[in-house]
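Researcher: Structure for this, please.
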Amino acid sequence: MSFKITTLMENNISEGKSELYKEHGLSIYIQADGKRILFDTGKTGNFAKNAEKLNVDLSKLDSVILSHGHYDHTGGVETLINKGFIPSKLIVGKGFFNEKYKLAGTAKELKYIGHPFKKSLLERHDILIDEISSDMVHLSEHIMLFSNFKRNSDFEHLNKKFSIKCNDTLELDCFTEEIVLAIKTEKGLFVILGCSHVGVVNIIDTIIQRTGMNVFAIVGGTHLVDADKIRIDKTIAYFKEKNIQKIGVSHCTGEDAEKRLEEAFGNKFFHNNTGHIIEFS
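Model: Predicted structure, token format:
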């Protein structure tokens, strides 16, 4: 099983790729099993400019997957469509279209941080919206999507700053719509994360339980940016316990967690920044 993963947008730029744009967001292009998949679209349309510079053809996408409903992962959808790169299918988790908010600033004002496009935009362009609710979905023989993650860890807690509007009522956002992609390889699962709001250990543990497979590698956002020392220590211990061989973090991991992970894992660790390319065979 061979595949190629190209990070089109992330907070920082890979060494030697200074011509690329960066922003607070994430967008990853995946070529596997004959499929061309866009996983998240960053905060703006600049991921598409990076795609052109990286010789990534967005005109023949099989599907676009949005890991969750925040603006920094969904902001480029309108640009994608306006450029004529119209996918046949947009895959989101159940509840994706609910409004999302965050308490921000010293005044703790409620700020809208959800997707910036309207559902009608997709309908006008006849884009099929696949709002998945199943625990596990196969896109192909080797590509799987996971949702509805169990929350068994005692150190990963939902951030009380995040809320969601359900039936005109604001509630704590449990990120039930969050989607994670995994590619099955001979060495184990190669897991691609969006933001891991439900906890990266909860996510990995759920995937292992459902598949009975080991996780060989993880790439993407781990949302350890606000994590304290105890949580980072326990996350590192879990990764070691599960013998994860490659850890490529992005976006919402945070400088402190990145430093700690690099110290703990050495050459198993890498920064998955804008322009980084992974070729697996």
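Researcher: Any notable elements?
Model: The mean pLDDT is 95. Residues 150 and 185 are 24 Å apart (CA to CA).
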